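Milestone 3.1: sequence recovery, worked example.
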């Protein structure tokens, strides 16, 4: 009952604007595919797009202190990194990653950094691409000094500076769809899997495993884990909160036992 109430609350604007009397009638319309745009409106209404810059700061500290230096060493010959922020919402996470690299410019000098932000919602991706945020959105997670460094002030808000935008691109993408052959060195998929049922969560892990480099890293949300969810990933033995492709971890476990 509680879950149905939350769904009705989230969809109240759709019901009102479409003049649909009940949730059951809405479901019938979706099943019958009476309106090709209705499903998109429902998805937009149900999505939780809560985000802010450097959300839950600790994971970004872990990336800066442990994960990125490891990747810098492993990719020192190619001098190229590909990172995917899956479920990026309005883009703050992807831009926060770009800020990490900008904070350590000397290390990443002459590197090609490619950050992809994706979300199923076209609405939030459009906002992320624009890179324009209100004063309230910018001050959530950023100090004044950082705001001045990474944004250009406009009459009604702030726009991400061009040198950060050049590192980031955005696209509409469903995590459950086939992901192609692109290999990412680091994937952030935070607070997305919580909303999936067990079977869909396993499918999502498989999709992530198909595009992450064999020595790459996966970062999940604080309330998420791979334990009991998938065999495609295993917890990193040294870095808490980081997960690695299981094939990478397996040889080390066998070697320990000999």
């Amino acid at each position: 009952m509680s879950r149905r109430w939350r769904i009705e609350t989230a969809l109240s604007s759709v019901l009102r604007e479409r003049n649909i009397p009940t949730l059951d009638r809405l479901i019938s319309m979706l099943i019958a595919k009476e309106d090709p745009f209705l499903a998109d409106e429902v998805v937009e209404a149900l999505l939780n797009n809560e985000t802010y810059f450097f959300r839950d700061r600790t994971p970004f500290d872990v990336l800066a202190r442990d994960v990125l230096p490891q990747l810098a060493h492993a990719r020192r010959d190619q001098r190229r990194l590909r990172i995917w922020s899956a479920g990026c919402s309005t883009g703050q996470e992807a831009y926060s990653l770009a800020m990490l690299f900008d904070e350590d410019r000397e290390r990443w000098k002459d590197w090609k950094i490619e950050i992809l932000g994706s979300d199923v919602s076209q609405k939030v991706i459009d906002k992320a691409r624009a890179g324009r945020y209100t004063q309230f959105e910018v001050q959530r997670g950023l100090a004044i000094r950082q705001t001045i460094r990474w944004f250009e002030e406009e009459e009604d808000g702030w726009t991400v500076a061009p040198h950060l935008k050049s590192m980031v691109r955005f696209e509409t993408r469903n995590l459950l769809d086939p992901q192609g052959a692109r290999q990412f060195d680091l994937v952030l998929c935070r607070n997305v899997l919580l909303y999936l049922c067990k079977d869909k969560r396993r499918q999502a892990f498989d999709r992530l495993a198909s595009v992450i480099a064999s020595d790459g890293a996966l970062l999940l949300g604080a309330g998420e884990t791979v334990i009991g969810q998938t065999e495609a990933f295993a917890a990193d033995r040294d870095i808490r909160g980081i997960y690695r492709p299981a094939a990478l971890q397996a040889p080390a476990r066998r070697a320990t036992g000999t």
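The radius of gyration is 20 Å. Residues 29 and 35 are 7 Å apart (CA to CA).
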